[in-house]
Amino acid sequence: MNYQNFFQNRPTTEIAQDLLGRVLTYQDNGKLLGGLIVETEAYLGPKDYAAHSYNGRRSPANEGLYCPGGYLYIYAQRQYFFFDIATQERDNPEGVLVRAIEPTLGIETMIKNRAGKTGPLITNGPAKMMQAFGVTSRKWDLHPINQTPFSVDLTSKRPIKNVIAAPRIGVRQDDDWSKRLLRFYVAGNPYVSDMKKTKLDKNNGWELTKNKI
Questions:
Q1: Which EC class, in a word (predicted)?
Q2: Three-class DSSP category at 81
Q3: What is the C-alpha R_g of the chain?
Q4: What's this model's pTM, rounded to 2 decimal places?
Q5: What is the spatial distance between Cα 110 and Cα 99, in angstroms, rounded to a whole number?
């Protein structure tokens, strides 16, 4: 499956869930950093109050959402950066925010990029993940993912015991969209944002297999 087929022609919520268990990587000066995607959020375009394209907003800052599926929308809030992928045809501004990964590649470098933070604190949030990768600009915004240092492995994924659908984090609480189940995560994985210790799974929410990714 290629990126265009994966990131178009099906609902954004389906794409957000299908990304779970896949490996997201970033090439940083010859070093490969990355891990298993464990948390995503779907944003559903002009009707979605929490989406950057709500009510048809369009500007150079959010143009990445209006690109065809498989293009990157990297945006900034203060000094922090966030990684989204557009998920529909051109001019249909929906996308998926990758919120967290379980590190598997280049962990020592990611710890250094996170100023010595270890364990779940390396990547248990979207800004933390980008810091761990060493991303400090929007350079790859508006680019198709296969023409950037980022990559998502579409050939395989780690089997998951249970996917949870939950309300998104940081959406205004007096709006109906705050209650919609548009955040998806691997149940019991310690790298999921705000994962409670009482909810942790001893296998991080993965099905036991002989061949681990």
A1: hydrolase
A2: strand
A3: 16
A4: 0.95
A5: 16
